[in-house]
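Bench log, entry 3. Co-assembly request; chain sequences pasted below exactly as received.
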Amino acid sequence: MSRLAIIGGSGIYDIDGLEDAKWQTIETPWGQPSDKILTGRLGETEMAFLPRHGRGHVHSPTTVPYRANIDALKRLGVTDVISISACGSFREDMAPGDFVLVDQFVDRTFAREKSFFGTGCVAHVSVAHPVCERLRGAVKASAADITLHDGGTYLAMEGPQFSTVAESKLYRDVWGCDVIGMTNMPEAKLAREAELCYASVAMITDYDSWHPDHDTVQITEIIATLRGNAEKARMLVRAVAETLAGPHPDCPHGCDRALEYAIMTGPEA
Ligand code: ADE
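Structure output for the full assembly:
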């Protein structure tokens, strides 16, 4: 059976229209998740929803308990995770209000726990292709009237401050990144370690600081754009749930078998 989880970023603290909706407390060995998890059904599809920053927005990008979040979703039987989060754009043609279906990441975060594996059990999974192409395809097929750019490299920064102009130009002009955000890493890496299919929809709220006409990012503008996008995000969630209805296939890209050849520690350890 499949279960689809949505991890909602800034401005997305619940999803509507769930049947049998209930907020559940899930304990994990990695501590408390960001919040209770809302479970229920959208049509035929079992759902789970987790507000990444917690209701009331109590976790900063650095303090989000990424390991507890992914582990809690796994414990609930989740098979597919779609992240919906705000981002800045490095491209004129990717405008505020547009959505980007991310396919690559540059991870510049440095103050977060990034793995379930360490002392005692060591594993090295591949994240060469960090996004599940099957799940990305399902989102793309569900986008209908939403302006959704197919593919983009997301630079994950530590924050919580936004970038300087020099950093923004480096990420855009030298590194060739398309969007920037603070939360998709290490989430995507942890989802792979947990053998979950993961896709990310980045909702553009601003042009970061490289743009000559928009050189400071203001949180008030971000919130206003997010409010304008909330209904589009809800429509997308309903449509993806419908697209994914039915039994969960073996992942053609092997996300659900990521640990098969990844564990270094012997059984005797
Ligand atoms: N989230 C929304 N806009 C952002 C930006 N410009 N940089 C980092 N995270 C963001």
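The chain has a mean pLDDT of 95. The first strand starts at residue 3 and ends at 8.
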